[in-house]
Amino acid sequence: MKEISKKENSLLARLANGLLKLKEAMGPETEPVLAGIWTDQSSFVSAIKGLKQKGYKKIKAITPCPIHGLEELLEIKRSWIPWVTFVFGLFGCLFGLWFTWWTSAVDWPLIIGGKPFWSLPAFIPVIFECTILLGALSSVAALLYACGIPSVDPPVLDKDLTSHKFALYFDLKNKKSSSEELEKELLALGAEKIIHSEF
Question: What is the mean pLDDT of the chain?
Answer without folding.
Answer: 85
